[in-house]
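Recall the central idea of this unit: under ordinary conditions, the amino acid sequence of a chain determines the structure it adopts. In this exercise we apply that idea directly, starting from the sequence alone.
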Amino acid sequence: MDLKIRYFKEDIPFHVDDSHHPIVLNPRKCPALESEAGEVVRALEHPIDSPRLKDIVKPGEKNRYCYKRYFPPHAFLGSASLCTG
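Accordingly, the structure predicted from this sequence is:
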């Protein structure tokens, strides 16, 4: 099966022998976010497979972060209201 994969702005062609039973996976359509800050708040309130950050960090402890995914810096900069609890 001849396939191609998008790499930045160009398509890279490649071949997978049919004996490997290749399948094609397409991305799901996802609606655009109404608000990046709102999505950060939602993610903090409803984390996946983890307690909420405010349940992990106790009063008086210094902040600590463990990122499993990339968040653009502007999603946090200037968002002091996200840090209140």
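The longest strand covers residues 2-7.
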